[in-house]
Amino acid sequence: MAEKKKVLLVDDDPDFVEAVRVIVESGGYDVRVAYDGQEGLDAVAEEKPDLIVLDVMMPVMNGHACCAKLKADPTTAKIPIILLTAVADRVTTSTYTHRDMLESEAEDYMPKPVEPAELLNLIKSWLQ
Asked: Which of 10, 110, 116, 121 is exposed most, by the fewest CB atoms within 10 A?
């Protein structure tokens, strides 16, 4: 049997992490979690995930900074990253903008709240 693809989920909201973990595991993926950008970087080094689902607004290191570090490192640059963000709803109250999303080197991004089937389809499309 083929080894399950590993998805690293990085988000500072434990309830959200648990809900998304269940969704992604239902798609047959092996899910690892981290709760901020620095933990995410450490987990990438340790786990070697096939794909990363990364929240933007987090303490310690935000998703943009984490994404930039991963893309700057030749050993992790090829790992697809999907940024998750509630920024679309909060552009007026957040320091993040749509331009940040477009300028980030992430392969894709998805607004929160996440639609489970859409997220699974997005993950599947990047892991094929």
From this structure: 121
> In whole angstroms, what is the distance from residue 48 CA to residue 90 CA?
32
Bigger pLDDT: 95 vs 81 = 81
Model confidence band, residue 88 (pLDDT cutoffs 50, 70, 90): low
Domain boundaries, the chain: 6-122
Q: What's the burial of 69, exposed, middle or buried (CB within 10 Å: 0-12/13-18/19+)? A: middle
Distance CA 79, CA 5 (A): 12
Return the closest-CA partner of residue 113 out of 82, 94, 92, 89. Answer: 89
Query: For the whole model, what pTM was predicted?
Result: 0.85
